[in-house]
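User: Can you help me understand a structure? I only have the sequence.
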Amino acid sequence: MDQMQEPLIITVDGPAGSGKSSICQRVAERIGFTYVNTGALYRSIAYLASMEHIPLEDERGLCKLAESFHQYGQHDPDSGNIHYQGTLLNPYLYTEDLSWKASKIATSAPLREALLPVQREWALKCRHGALLDGRDTGTVVFPGAQLKIFLTASPEQRAYRRKIQLQTNQPSAPEPDLSSLTEDLKRRDQQDSQRETAPLRQAKDAIVLDSSDLTIEQTIEKMAGIIRDQLGIPV
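Assistant: Let's start by predicting it. Here is the structure, written out as tokens:
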């Protein structure tokens, strides 16, 4: 009996607010791959830590939570929904506060080690192929990925996109301040790139896609074209 072939893996890394999630989700649908949002995993742990009153500095507590998540968490590859003990987490994961908490716990080496098999499991369970996005999917999670892309944009453009995203996800909340979002993203970039554990960096064999002057549709077209040219996948 032939061994089941592992799915093709495409990784997309980049700074916060570069549009990875929305762009990668649509590109994955277009090429028939499963989209795996690794950032949502860290957001899930940060959210659950808050709910269970686990301090973000408590690495042992976070790792125990990660082990519990590995056992009781579920990821639906078709919808991208994440459940933990029967509760859908997605509606709670996309606030600025939780984004900072996720970035903070992502600096924990023990936690990253505990979550590494979860990320790989999510991707390798995909039937045809997986498109992952995050900060270190091409450098740590899948260094042997068939294709690596580094998606970036200027802090100003990313802040504007984040503002639109926040207004869409939280229409009743006060209007976000664009200058504050820009400064927050610059600090987040510094935090992510200078952390000791799995810092944000471009893989040496990654293809850079700068979307500063591109619309979402144009960025999707560019990324789909890269995948077509590099892997021969019809788009």
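Now, to help you interpret it: The chain has one domain: 8-226. The longest helix spans residues 178-194. Let me know which part you'd like to focus on.
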